[in-house]
Design goal:
Blueprint lengths: L5 H5 L7 H7 L1 H21 L4 H11 L4 H23 L4 H18 L6 H10 L2 H4 L5 H12 L2 H12 L1
Helix pairs in contact: 2-3, 3-4, 4-5, 5-6
Amino acid sequence: MGHVNHSLYKYRIHKRSLSSAIQNNKDYLSEYDKNLSQMFSSLTRLHNWPNNIGVFLVYLTIADSKSVFFYWENKKSVLKNFSTYCRRSNQDFKLTQYFLIKRIREVILSKKELQNVRILFRIIFQTPEILFDTNFSNRTTLNILYKCCGNVEVFFNSVECLES
């Protein structure tokens, strides 16, 4: 198991874990989502951010594919608000930006609907830092490329159907 302590490894998600209980019980999940929204809404008000930043943080936390689209459409606003926050709270903006992009990479890897050639081109042209930032793992970058290109045949077949 490498450097992961065996007892910590056993603690990971299993059928009886709190994370599994939340995901598998609609009542718990609904309560969790409501509390998460309230938390980010409070954070948004505290820092005088636009409300959509709070919604974005909820999407990012629950790994919703909407977070990636929101980032593309509101990149300047997101970075401006986070930059202002970092400056006021004496935080490292580059580190904040790193973790933001890292999370977006995780969302892309976890959502099939974000793994296609169209999304890959959008990443390359709108947010190349998702793939090409030197601070990220080359293996993970290749995994993103592989997953996006793995659907190339499906993409071209759909184009052929449209042309017929």
